[in-house]
C-alpha cells in the first residue's frame, strides 16, 4: 500500500453528531444540496445540546419550538472553509443553484403504518451582497435529526466536502452509523459492518425509482462500487468494501454488506519538531505502513482469528484498533510471514 493511501489525521477537523435515523433516511438530492444540509445541521445541532433537552419529549418537538429556532446562518466563505473546498466562481454557482432548489428537496420518513414525505427546509435565502446563506429546517424533520441521545454518527465535514458523489456521502453516513458495532458481534477489533441491505432497500433509501432497475450489474458498478472507490480515496480513518450476498450461493444478488476497517493515521511531522521527534514519527509511520501492507496479505485474516481465539482461551484482554494490528503483525513476524 502506498504511503498516500494511509490517512493523515486532521488537527482542525469539524464533526457533526448526526442521528442514525437521518444517516439511514430515504431521500435523494443534488450533491451540493446534501452538503448544505450537513452544514446546516452542523450549525444547529450544538444549539440543542443533548444536556439541554435530555428530558424533553421529542414527540412534540415540532410544537415546542418555533420554526425560527431551526434557522442556520453562515456565509459561503465559512461553508467552503468548513467543507475544505475552494471558494471559486464555479463553487458559488453550484451553491446558488442548490439554494434555489433547496425547498423542493424532501425526505421520506417511514414507520410501520405510515409513509410521510417532508421538505427538508421551510425557507432558503441567499444574500448576495454579504454572501450569507440562511436555511430554515422543517421542525418535523429536526425531530429526528436532533435525537442523538441514543445512537448517532460522527460525520467529519471536510470529508463530506471532498466527496463529489451523493451516493459516496450517503455511504459515508451509513457506514459511520454502524460504528458502535466495532469489535462486537463477531467483528474483529477495529472492524465493523452494516447489516445486510437488500438491493431494493438501497434503491428506496436513495430514491432511485426505475434507475438501473433491470440492470443489476450497472447498479452494482455505478451505485455501489464507484462511490465506494471515491469514498476510499479521500483520506478517511477507515476503509469500506462491499460484500455481495447471493441467493442460495447462485448468481442472483440478494443484498450487500458494507464492511469497514479502521486505518491507523500517520504521525504528522511539523516544522517545530525536534530531530528526535521527527525520527520517532518517521519510525512509527514506517511501522504503520508495514502493517498496512501485511493486512493486504491473505494470511492476515487467519492470523487475526488465531490471535483473537488465543486471547479468548486465556481470558486475555483483546486490544482494539492499532494495538490489535500490532499483535497480529507481531505474530506474523514470529511465523515468518513478514519481516
UniProtKB/TrEMBL annotation:
Gene3D superfamilies listed in its UniProt record: Winged helix-like DNA-binding domain superfamily/Winged helix DNA-binding domain (1.10.10.10)
Every Initiator Rep protein WH1 domain range: 19-175
Name of the protein in question: Initiator RepB protein
GO BP: any one term: DNA replication initiation
Family note: Belongs to the initiator RepB protein family.
Pfam family, one: Rep3_C
UniProt xrefs under InterPro entries: Initiator_Rep_WH1, WH-like_DNA-bd_sf, WH_DNA-bd_sf
GO molecular function: DNA-directed DNA polymerase activity
